[in-house]
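Sequence in, structure out.
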Amino acid sequence: MEQNVGGMDRNARIVGGLIFLAAAIFSPPITGLAILLYALAAIGLVTGLAGFCPLNALFKINTAKAKKS
């Protein structure tokens, strides 16, 4: 799996995921909003930490710096 998320995009996903996580923790439990916030937090954190986004791969978007050979 080649990384396609890097730099500012990766940092924004991690920070956004943490913000969504905090919002979900402080929202009323077991509501549609809390579930949505947890899902958005998970997506942001996983794609940011892994450095790979399936939607970026689908649309051939690569924000990671190319490796020098």
